[in-house]
Amino acid sequence: MQTRRETLKHSAMVAGLLATTGLFPQYAQAYNKSAFEAKSVADVIKALGASAPVESKDVTIGGPDIAENGAVVPLTTSTTLAGVKHMLILVEKNPNTLVAQFNVTDSVEPNFATRSKMGQSSDVYAVAIMNDGKALFAKKEVKVTLGGCGG
Question: 61, 64, 71, 90: most buried by Cβ count inside 10 Å?
Answer without folding.
Answer: 90
